[in-house]
């Protein structure tokens, strides 16, 4: 008799379990709206630290994703030195995701200028915004790179003795990759070349650490170290010299 009374309860539980299973299996994950965990701006072009030339058309692309509807955005390009604006563009689209696809043409540039590109998104009508910035380097038309050479050894007017080992330490930095360098040591009194070494490293930062043995001299001799770095494949170079002396 007890078993008979339990059967309806068991059947009820099985029915409820089956109904829940069918409901779960019938649920379509594609219908679930995925809400971003945060507001985010992504800039895909130009690259942070990139080089742009005068007259060049620059594609500005990316996206803005919001927790809620984005209320438009503004693109600004300005000089870092004085905040002079070179380009602005406001877009008043409204969506949870906005794709950025704009074109900006750089005007005349006489010398290297550091620029800042900013995308400012409006998140609501209460003044809440989100910003992302990258750095760009503007160069004259046809100029592909600029760089600097710093020589820390030998120091200017340093003295070395005959057969002394001299340390040659320096760094070369470029906005883009440096395309190798050449070391020269010359006798300034005679013009004779005492050292020529070519190195074909490619990097934005090149560290030079070399040694050179001073020749035997019988009198005070004026020497010169020169480093010549290749900025590009079009023949652009920079150089730096240091004078030093050899004694018997």
TrEMBL record:
Protein name in the entry: DUF4625 domain-containing protein
At the top level, the lineage of the source is: Bacteria
What species does this protein belong to? Answer: Adhaeribacter terreus
The entry's keywords: Signal
Q: Where does the secretion signal sit in this chain?
A: 1-24
